[in-house]
Amino acid sequence: MGHDQLLMNAKISSIRQNFRRDCLRCGASVETLIQALKDYPTARAILTLGGLDGRLLDKDYLNCVDWLEDVRRILDRKVVEDFITTLWNSWNNHNNFVFYGKKDEAHVVWDSTKTFCRDF
Fold this sequence. Notes:
Number of domains: 1
Number of strands: 0
Shape: globular
Number of helices: 7
Mean pLDDT: 81
Distance between the termini: 24 Å
Order of helices and strands: HHHHHHH
Strand content: under 5%
Oligomer: single chain
Low-confidence stretches: 1-7
Largest sheet: none
Radius of gyration: 14 Å
């Protein structure tokens, strides 16, 4: 998956005039994929609850794919699988807010991720 395949506000605004580039959830000046998955406060809280440490949370990345490559390089295979499931649930939380105005707290998203990983 290319880092620009998921349509974030920054990408949509380059295609459609008068579309806001900023993040509707936290007010960041530009909503990008790395911001939505790693830097947005709720996403960061979900990742922290999942045990992701500062090596992967505090470093600045230009592209999401660079971050994911570091994740794959640093974490073992099973942890990476759980990490991807966590990102999936975090992204669903993002979409629920964008499309329905509904946002779960970080601990709710993390609890559903733990249950999913344990069951499958």
